[in-house]
Amino acid sequence: MNMETIINFLNKNGLVVAFLVTGAVIYLANMLSLHVFKKKVPGAALAIVFGLLMAYIGGITTGGKNGIADIKIFSGFSLMGGAMLRDFAIISTAFGASFLVMRQSGLVGLISLFMGVILTFFVGAGVAFAFGYTDAKSMTTIGAGACTYIVGPVTGAAIGASSELIVLSIAAGVVKATIVAIGTPLVAKSIGLNNPHTAMVFGGMVGTNAGVMAGLAATDPKLVPYGALTATFYTGLGCLLCPSLLYMVIQWFFPIQ
User: Which of 130, 176, 161 lies closest to 247, judged by CA?
Assistant: First the structure.
């Protein structure tokens, strides 16, 4: 079997290649986390950084818009990284949670959701204002991106924000997810993040599924379903509140000229 045959085979099985590369990246990240960083930096956080670097290199190399998926042999990442498998992965985490524990934490989890979305939104909008984005659409889109990198583009599209603002909102969400992933195990002990109740509150306050799941996995894998559950609702609540009620609040203080 020559190299050309192997390349043709890989090109025709893009999704399989995507899973193989992802597995290799996660394995490398976990080894670095264990042996180099002594578990102080979660392997999942390192994997996210490696993924961002791969996407950047792919975009620079091809001049395309889909990151590494623009390289033919890695085209399977367009499906693997798409909404279908992403949503499946998020929803599947809920099956590891105990309904009894969720009921016991219901009110606290609900309060944490609203507090998390509203506080994060206004912090993000305030940062946008500090950097010169003083119109309602800009502040709302970037504020929504501070909630998660999913809420940002959903909100931006809903209120008619420019593509540049939507990109900024995604960038804000990715930065937040990375910080949460790295910082969670470092602060878990001091904030009592060691049981399902606090994990649900944490997921509701912080949101960002990727960051919460990575951080909790590095802290205690048993906490992941609980934090992921409220983080998932956080995303949905953010998609409802940011382009509607919170946008109207921003317009009240910064009316469109």
Answer: 161
- The CA distance from 195 to 130, in Å, is 37
For 19, how many CA atoms within 13 A lie in the half-sphere containing its CB?
Answer: 4
Express each pLDDT in 167-208 by its tens digit.
Answer: 888 888 888 888 888 888 888 888 888 888 888 888 888 888
Q: What average pLDDT does this structure show over 122-137?
A: 90
Map residue 234 onto helix, strand or coil: helix
Read off the pTM: 0.70
> Could you tell me the residue ranges of all domains in the chain?
3-83, 93-253
Output the six-digit token pair for 253.
Answer: 């203080």
H or E element, residue 105: none
CB 192 within 8 A of CB 198: yes
Residues 142/153, Cβ–Cβ less than 8 Å: no
Q: At 21, which helix (H) or strand (E)?
A: helix 14-35
Side chain identity, residue 255: P
CA separation for the pair 43, 46 (Å, rounded): 5
Environment class of 220 (CB within 10 Å of its CB; exposed 0-12, middle 13-18, buried 19+) = middle
Contacts 24+ apart (CB under 8 A), 125-128: 125/250
d(CA 80, CA 209): 17
**For 219-241, what is each residue's pLDDT tens digit?**
888 888 888 878 877 888 888 88
The SS3 assignment for 161 reads coil
pLDDT tens figures, 56-113: 787 787 776 777 777 788 888 877 766 666 656 655 655 555 555 556 556 777 788 8
Task: Locate 188 and state its tokens.
Answer: 């878990």
Which residue type is seen at 138?
Answer: S
Amino acid at 51: G
